[in-house]
Amino acid sequence: MSQSERLVLATRYRLVSEIGQGANGTVWRGHDELLDRSVAIKELRLPEDLSEDDRVVFYRRTLREARAPAQLRTHSIVEVYDVVIEQGRPWIVMEMIEAPSLEHLIERSGPLPPERVAHIGRALLDALNTAHKAGIVHRDLKPSNVLLDGDRVVLTDFGLAFSSGSASLTKTGHFMGSPAYVAPEVAAGEKATPRSDLWSLGATLYAALEGHPPFERDNVMATLSALANESTPAPQNAGALAPVITGLLEKNPTRRLSHARAVDRLERAMAGPRSGRRQTTPRYRLMAVIALIGATVASCGIGATALIVGMMREGPGPSATATTSSPASSDAQAPPGIDTSTLVVRARNDSCKIFVSVPGNVITVLSDETLKQNEARQYDQPRINAVIYDASACDVWVNGEQKAVGGQGERKNYTINKE
C-alpha cells in the first residue's frame, strides 16, 4: 500500500484506492469513517512553476468556489461534502457516483443516437440553470465531467479544477483549461459567463453526436487557431437537434442561444412538428416513416423519429420486464409476452446493445444496456423509440411480429405506436 493510500484526511476521510488521474490532480475512492459512507476525493495538484503568491490565490479560489456548489441541491449536480487542506494542497470530498463518464461512453460506443443526446442535453441545461441562478459558472463543461448513472445525468467539477478561474494562456505559456470545449471569448482572455458555459454544452453535445468536438485538432495551439479562425462545422448526425447545436455554438456570445431559448428548441426537437403541420404532410404517417428510416437511420436519427413523436399522445410511465429463454436463435421458441408487448428484444449473443425510451416533452429512458446471451427485455408502453446497435446480435418483436435479423454491425431504429 502506498503512502497516499494510508493517508486519512481531516481525521475522517481515508483514501482507499486511486480511481483516475487528470491534468489537475488525482481522484480517489475514499471512505468517510465518521459517517461510514463511500466518497470520492479529488486531490488537486498545483503546477510546479507557480509562484508562492499564485499558490495562495489558488488555495483561496479553491475554498471559495467549493463552498458555492456545495450549497446546490439538485439531482443533476454532484454533491460536494467538504474541502480540506492536507500535505500543503486542497482535497475536495464529493458524492461517490459509480458510473461512466460521457467521454468514456463516446470512446467505447462511438456517436450516440440523437434522442439520447437530447435526454443528456435537457438534464445538463437544468443543471446549468440551477448553478447560474446561484451565481456559479462551471467554466469546464466537457464530456469527462458528465457522469451517466442510468437515467441520471450528473455534472461534476463545478469550479473545482485549477483551470476554472480562467481558461486562457498563462504567463508560462500553458493553456489552463479544455481548449476543445472552451468558448471563443474565454479562449481570447475574456471572463467566463453563463453564455460561455452554454457554448461548452454545445461542444459537448456535438461530441456526443459526432464522436469528437467541433474544433479539436492535434495540439492546443492548432485547436485554438481553428476556434478563432474557422467556421463552426455543421453536425452531420444531429437530425432535429441541429438548430440547438448550431445555436449553442454561435461564436458571438450575444447571438448565442440563451438558456430559455435552448430549452425551447430542445423541447421542440424532442416533441416533433406541431399538429397543424402534420395534417398537411400525410407522407409522414407511421408506417411510411418506419419504411423510410430503415435505409437512412444513420443520417436521420431523431429527425425521423421526432415526426412520429409529434403524432402521438403521451403514454404511460416506464416499465420493463426481464425474461429469459433458452436458445438465442430466430428459429427458437419465442420468449413469453410477445402477444401482449409492444416491443420484445432477446440477445442472440453478448453484443446485443439496446437503447429504449418513451418520447415526450421529457424523454424517459427505459433501457440503456448490453444484454447477455438469451437475456430478453419486454416493454408494454404504447409509444416507444428503440435503437439496436448491432442488428445481428438481437432478435426483435414489434407488436407481436418478429423483425428480420440485420447484418453484423448494422444499427436499426424502431419507432412504435400501438395506440
UniProtKB/TrEMBL annotation:
CDD domains: STKc_PknB_like (cd14014). GO terms for molecular function: ATP binding; protein serine/threonine kinase activity. ATP binds at K42. Its EC number is 2.7.11.1. SMART domains: S_TKc (SM00220). InterPro entries: Kinase-like_dom_sf (IPR011009), NEK_Ser/Thr_kinase (IPR050660), Prot_kinase_dom (IPR000719), Protein_kinase_ATP_BS (IPR017441), Ser/Thr_kinase_AS (IPR008271). PANTHER family: SERINE/THREONINE-PROTEIN KINASE NEK (PTHR43671), SERINE_THREONINE-PROTEIN KINASE NEK2 (PTHR43671:SF13). Belongs to the protein kinase superfamily. NEK Ser/Thr protein kinase family. NIMA subfamily. This is non-specific serine/threonine protein kinase.
